[in-house]
Design brief:
The chain has seven helices and ten strands. By secondary structure, it is an alpha+beta fold. Strands 1-2-3-10-9 form a five-stranded antiparallel beta sheet. The chain has a five-stranded antiparallel beta sheet with strand order 4-5-6-7-8. It is elongated, with a radius of gyration of 24 Å. The termini are close together.
Length: 250
C-alpha cells in the first residue's frame, strides 16, 4: 500500500507544478509501547507546493504529532519507571504528571510523594522509622532540537523543585535528587525519541528534504509536536518524483 503522505504528494505535484497548491494529510494513528504502556500517537499535516522561481518548485511539509494519549498516560509511564518502596531507604510514588505546551517548548510537571525510612536494631529487634516525608513537585522544560539537520531530539532541563524543609533539601541536592531528575528526563526523552516523524515522509521527499524547525504547540491536555521540512527542486525533478510514485503505486 502506498503511504498516505506519498499519495498526497503525488496528487499535489501532478495537479499543478506551476500554481500554489496545498493538501491536508489525513490523520494516521500509530501505536507505541512506552514502559509497557500502549500509547496512540495521531500524525497529520500538510504538503504544499509553490513556484519558487522559473523552473523551480518549493515543496513544504508539516507534520503534527498529537500527544494527547501520551499526556493521558504520562502518570502511569513515570510510575513504572520511578516508583520505589524500600523498607529501609527512599520510597517514592508519582502522584500525577502533566505535559503542557508552552511553545516552542513544553512543561513537564511531576507531583511526587517522597519518604525516607531508616532501620536500626535495638534490644534484638529491628526498628523502622520514617525520617522525612512529604509531597514535592518537579517542573522540567522540554525543548525539541534538530541535530545534523535531520535528527529530532528533545533537550530537558529542570526549572524548579518545590518542596519544603528537609524534603526539599533531599530532592534538590544529593544523589537521590540527582537520580530522580535524571530518570524523569530519560523516561520522557526516550518516549518522545520513539516518534520517528521523518519516517512519515514519502521516500522521494525524505531523501532530499531537510527538516527546518520543530516545536511543541497545542492546548492543555492536547500537546502537539510539530516538525516542518522543505525542499526546492527543479520542475523536471518533481515530474521524475511523480513518475517514481506512479511506478511504486502499481
Amino acid at each position: 500500500m502506498i503511504p498516505i503522505a506519498t499519495f498526497v504528494l503525488f496528487l499535489l505535484v501532478s495537479h499543478s507544478l506551476a500554481a500554489d497548491s496545498s493538501f491536508r494529510i489525513p490523520p494516521v494513528r500509530t501505536q507505541l509501547t512506552i514502559e509497557g504502556q500502549p500509547v496512540t500517537v495521531e500524525v497529520s499535516g500538510s504538503v504544499s507546493a509553490a513556484a519558487a522561481s522559473p523552473g523551480l518548485e518549493t515543496i513544504s511539509v508539516q507534520l503534527d504529532a498529537g500527544l494527547s494519549d501520551l499526556e493521558r498516560n504520562l502518570t502511569s509511564i513515570l510510575r513504572a519507571q520511578l516508583n520505589q518502596s524500600n523498607r529501609c531507604g527512599e520510597r517514592l510514588s508519582v502522584e500525577r504528571a502533566t505535559l503542557q505546551p508552552a511553545a516552542p517548548s513544553a512543561m513537564l510537571t511531576t507531583d511526587v510523594h517522597f519518604e525516607k525510612w531508616g532501620c536500626a536494631k535495638a534490644f534484638g529487634k529491628e526498628i523502622v522509622k520514617r525520617l522525612v516525608g512529604g509531597n514535592g513537585t518537579v517542573k522540567m522544560r522540554l525543548t525539541p532540537e534538530l541535530q545534523n539537520g535531520d535528527t529530532l531530539r528533545v533537550a530537558a532541563e529542570v526549572v524548579s523543585i518545590d518542596a519544603d524543609g528537609s524534603l526539599g533539601e533531599a530532592l534538590r541536592s544529593g544523589a537521590f535528587g540527582d537520580s530522580l531528575k535524571e530518570r524523569i528526563r530519560q523516561t520522557i526523552v526516550s518516549a518522545i525519541d520513539k516518534l520517528d516523524l521523518n519516517a512519515a515522509l514519502p521516500p522521494p521527499v525524505r531523501e532530499i528534504a531537510a527538516l527546518r524547525s520543530a516545536q511543541f504547540s497545542g492546548e492543555p491536555g492536547n500537546p502537539v509536536l510539530s516538525v516542518t521540512g522543505e525542499v526546492r527542486i527543479p520542475a523536471d525533478q518533481a515530474r521524475a518524483i511523480v513518475g517514481r510514485l506512479k511506478s511504486d503505486a502499481r
